[in-house]
What does this fold into?
Amino acid sequence: MHFNPYGGAGAQVAADLATLAQRDDVTAAEVRAVGQAHDMVLPRIAADEAARILAWGRRLHRVFVAETTAERVDLVNELLAVAACRPNIASHDGKAPHLHYSSEGADVVERFHAYTAGGLAHLVCEEPHRLGVCAREGCGVAFVDTSRNGRRRFCSTRCGTRVNVADHRARQLAG
It folds into this structure.
Protein backbone atom coordinates (compact mmCIF):
# COMPACT_ATOMS: atom_id res chain seq x y z
CA MET A 1 0.00 0.00 0.00
CA HIS A 2 1.47 3.37 -0.96
CA PHE A 3 0.45 6.37 1.10
CA ASN A 4 1.10 10.03 0.47
CA PRO A 5 4.90 10.19 0.90
CA TYR A 6 4.72 12.82 3.63
CA GLY A 7 1.80 11.17 5.42
CA GLY A 8 3.39 7.77 5.13
CA ALA A 9 6.74 8.70 6.64
CA GLY A 10 5.19 11.06 9.19
CA ALA A 11 2.73 8.38 10.26
CA GLN A 12 5.53 5.80 10.49
CA VAL A 13 7.56 8.13 12.72
CA ALA A 14 4.40 8.63 14.82
CA ALA A 15 3.99 4.85 15.19
CA ASP A 16 7.62 4.32 16.17
CA LEU A 17 7.57 7.25 18.58
CA ALA A 18 4.26 6.11 20.11
CA THR A 19 5.80 2.70 20.74
CA LEU A 20 9.08 4.09 22.10
CA ALA A 21 7.20 6.42 24.45
CA GLN A 22 5.66 3.41 26.23
CA ARG A 23 9.07 2.57 27.71
CA ASP A 24 10.62 4.26 30.74
CA ASP A 25 14.30 3.86 29.87
CA VAL A 26 14.53 5.70 26.52
CA THR A 27 17.65 7.70 25.68
CA ALA A 28 17.86 10.87 23.59
CA ALA A 29 19.88 8.89 21.02
CA GLU A 30 16.99 6.43 20.62
CA VAL A 31 14.54 9.29 20.05
CA ARG A 32 16.86 10.74 17.40
CA ALA A 33 17.23 7.32 15.77
CA VAL A 34 13.44 7.05 15.33
CA GLY A 35 13.43 10.18 13.18
CA GLN A 36 16.61 9.31 11.34
CA ALA A 37 15.25 5.88 10.45
CA HIS A 38 12.65 7.72 8.36
CA ASP A 39 15.06 10.23 6.79
CA MET A 40 14.47 13.14 9.16
CA VAL A 41 17.57 15.32 9.23
CA LEU A 42 18.08 15.91 12.94
CA PRO A 43 20.66 17.60 15.13
CA ARG A 44 21.75 16.13 18.44
CA ILE A 45 18.75 15.89 20.78
CA ALA A 46 19.22 17.00 24.39
CA ALA A 47 17.70 15.06 27.28
CA ASP A 48 15.03 17.72 27.95
CA GLU A 49 14.04 17.76 24.26
CA ALA A 50 13.84 13.97 24.24
CA ALA A 51 11.56 14.08 27.29
CA ARG A 52 9.22 16.52 25.52
CA ILE A 53 9.22 14.41 22.35
CA LEU A 54 8.43 11.27 24.39
CA ALA A 55 5.55 13.09 26.11
CA TRP A 56 4.28 13.85 22.61
CA GLY A 57 4.73 10.16 21.73
CA ARG A 58 2.37 9.23 24.56
CA ARG A 59 -0.23 11.53 23.01
CA LEU A 60 0.39 9.94 19.61
CA HIS A 61 -0.21 6.51 21.13
CA ARG A 62 -3.79 7.49 21.93
CA VAL A 63 -4.45 7.90 18.18
CA PHE A 64 -3.30 4.34 17.49
CA VAL A 65 -5.49 2.80 20.20
CA ALA A 66 -8.58 4.86 19.32
CA GLU A 67 -11.49 2.62 18.44
CA THR A 68 -13.40 4.84 16.01
CA THR A 69 -12.55 7.13 13.13
CA ALA A 70 -14.35 9.98 14.87
CA GLU A 71 -12.17 9.54 17.95
CA ARG A 72 -9.04 9.45 15.77
CA VAL A 73 -10.11 12.62 13.96
CA ASP A 74 -10.64 14.46 17.27
CA LEU A 75 -7.28 13.32 18.64
CA VAL A 76 -5.39 14.26 15.47
CA ASN A 77 -7.10 17.65 15.39
CA GLU A 78 -5.86 18.23 18.96
CA LEU A 79 -2.34 17.29 17.84
CA LEU A 80 -2.53 19.61 14.84
CA ALA A 81 -3.63 22.48 17.09
CA VAL A 82 -0.63 21.97 19.35
CA ALA A 83 1.75 21.50 16.42
CA ALA A 84 0.45 24.72 14.82
CA CYS A 85 1.34 23.31 11.42
CA ARG A 86 1.96 25.76 8.61
CA PRO A 87 2.79 23.96 5.36
CA ASN A 88 5.70 25.18 3.28
CA ILE A 89 7.78 23.73 0.49
CA ALA A 90 11.41 23.08 1.39
CA SER A 91 14.46 21.98 -0.56
CA HIS A 92 17.53 21.04 1.43
CA ASP A 93 20.35 18.52 1.64
CA GLY A 94 20.16 17.81 -2.10
CA LYS A 95 16.53 16.65 -1.88
CA ALA A 96 13.85 17.62 -4.38
CA PRO A 97 11.28 20.17 -3.20
CA HIS A 98 9.04 18.58 -0.60
CA LEU A 99 6.40 19.55 1.94
CA HIS A 100 7.28 20.55 5.50
CA TYR A 101 4.78 21.44 8.20
CA SER A 102 7.21 23.35 10.39
CA SER A 103 9.16 26.50 9.67
CA GLU A 104 12.81 26.33 8.68
CA GLY A 105 13.82 27.69 12.09
CA ALA A 106 11.68 25.28 14.13
CA ASP A 107 13.41 23.44 16.96
CA VAL A 108 13.63 19.66 16.99
CA VAL A 109 10.59 19.23 19.27
CA GLU A 110 8.43 21.40 17.00
CA ARG A 111 9.65 19.42 13.99
CA PHE A 112 8.61 16.12 15.58
CA HIS A 113 5.24 17.63 16.49
CA ALA A 114 4.57 18.91 12.99
CA TYR A 115 5.90 15.87 11.12
CA THR A 116 3.93 13.32 13.11
CA ALA A 117 0.71 15.34 13.39
CA GLY A 118 0.80 16.12 9.66
CA GLY A 119 1.53 12.50 8.77
CA LEU A 120 -1.29 11.19 10.93
CA ALA A 121 -3.67 13.81 9.50
CA HIS A 122 -2.96 12.61 5.96
CA LEU A 123 -3.44 9.00 6.95
CA VAL A 124 -6.60 9.56 9.00
CA CYS A 125 -8.13 11.40 6.03
CA GLU A 126 -7.11 8.71 3.53
CA GLU A 127 -7.19 5.39 5.42
CA PRO A 128 -8.11 5.83 9.12
CA HIS A 129 -8.48 2.08 9.71
CA ARG A 130 -4.80 1.50 8.93
CA LEU A 131 -3.58 2.59 12.36
CA GLY A 132 -3.34 -0.03 15.08
CA VAL A 133 -1.65 -1.57 18.06
CA CYS A 134 -0.42 -5.17 18.11
CA ALA A 135 -3.15 -7.59 19.21
CA ARG A 136 -0.69 -9.88 21.05
CA GLU A 137 -1.28 -9.47 24.76
CA GLY A 138 1.60 -7.58 26.35
CA CYS A 139 3.11 -6.28 23.10
CA GLY A 140 1.55 -2.85 22.51
CA VAL A 141 3.64 -1.87 19.46
CA ALA A 142 1.88 0.80 17.38
CA PHE A 143 1.92 0.32 13.61
CA VAL A 144 0.70 1.64 10.29
CA ASP A 145 -0.94 -1.18 8.36
CA THR A 146 0.65 -1.21 4.91
CA SER A 147 -0.71 -4.65 4.01
CA ARG A 148 -2.64 -5.08 0.79
CA ASN A 149 -5.97 -5.93 2.45
CA GLY A 150 -5.67 -3.56 5.42
CA ARG A 151 -6.52 -6.19 8.04
CA ARG A 152 -3.25 -6.41 9.95
CA ARG A 153 -3.62 -7.28 13.65
CA PHE A 154 -0.03 -7.78 14.73
CA CYS A 155 3.08 -5.61 14.64
CA SER A 156 5.14 -8.40 13.10
CA THR A 157 4.99 -11.92 11.77
CA ARG A 158 6.69 -13.04 14.97
CA CYS A 159 3.88 -11.73 17.20
CA GLY A 160 1.21 -13.19 14.90
CA THR A 161 2.93 -16.57 14.92
CA ARG A 162 3.22 -16.59 18.72
CA VAL A 163 -0.52 -15.97 19.09
CA ASN A 164 -1.45 -18.51 16.42
CA VAL A 165 0.78 -21.21 17.95
CA ALA A 166 -0.62 -20.53 21.43
CA ASP A 167 -4.17 -20.73 20.06
CA HIS A 168 -3.36 -23.98 18.24
CA ARG A 169 -1.88 -25.53 21.38
CA ALA A 170 -4.91 -24.47 23.43
CA ARG A 171 -7.24 -26.13 20.88
CA GLN A 172 -5.13 -29.30 20.96
CA LEU A 173 -5.36 -29.48 24.74
CA ALA A 174 -9.11 -28.82 24.70
CA GLY A 175 -9.81 -31.32 21.94
Q: What stands out?
A: Residues 80 and 117 are 6 Å apart (CA to CA). The beta strands are 88-90, 98-100, 131-133, 142-144. The helical segments are 5-20, 28-36, 47-65, 69-83, 108-126, 157-174.
